[in-house]
Amino acid sequence: MSKARTRLTLPIAPAGRPIIPGRVEWLRTEMLKTRVAHGYCSRQLAAEACPYANICEQCDNYVTAPGFIPQLQAQLTDITALRDDAAERGWHAEVARHSRVIASIQAHLQRLTRTAGTGHTT
Fold first, then answer.
1. Can you tell me whether residue 34 is helix, strand or coil?
2. pTM of this prediction?
3. What is the pLDDT of residues 25-73, one digit of tens each?
4. Cα angle, residue 86 at apex, residues 85 and 91 outer, rounded to 5°
5. Does the chain have fewer CB atoms within 10 Å around its N or its C terminus?
6. Closest CA to 57 of 93, 94, 107
């Protein structure tokens, strides 16, 4: 095995392309797109919408705090772009899924903004 290891090089990414695609390149790919904490899901289109995508943001037990407003705003921006991309591609189930997450994040942000304005924590 050690002889084979020294002779064979196994590419871990296509030549000339990064292992992890850039954000814009990823948004243009032909796959269902889900922004998750610290990365993205690469679910294939044939697999249909994932029932677990962004489940936490929609859960009644999800708790966030004003300190996370910038992250939630960034996530909202990404998910809005993903919803718009899905609409352009005619992926109606994806549009509906992203719309539910958008509504949930907007509700969290509205609550956090009110909370931050009153000085209370959630």
1. strand
2. 0.63
3. 655 666 666 665 656 667 777 777 777 777 888 888 888 889 889 989 9
4. 155
5. N
6. 107
